[in-house]
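Hi all, long-time lurker, first post. I run a small reading group and we've been trying to get comfortable going from sequence to structure in the token notation. Rather than ask abstract questions, I figured I'd post a concrete chain and ask someone more experienced to write out its structure so we can walk through it together at our next meeting. Sequence below, copied exactly:
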Amino acid sequence: MEKAEKNKVKDMPQPLSIHVQLAETPRIGESIVFEFVPWNTFERGIVYDVRHKIQGKAQIVEIYAHPSDTEYDRWMKLKEEYEVHQKWKFNNN
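-- Answer (accepted) --
Happy to help. Here is the structure in token form:
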């Protein structure tokens, strides 16, 4: 893990869970602002995952946002995962 990545991990706050009703579900890559959460040290983030769950008669949409990752950061992580997979695939053939 690179030094910059270690610093990001070290400075990350604990996960946050809140229940709200939104007019629209943000999409992956969009920036969201959640300044209405008083105990949160980060007021904005970039959505990196959206999951839909059905519990009983309710639909729950979980929105995962990261306060400091950018599209470039996520692309580099995907690239690294792809390269690891390619090496594994090559070595197992």
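A couple of things your group might point at:
The longest strand covers residues 44-55.
Residues 23 and 31 are 16 Å apart (CA to CA).
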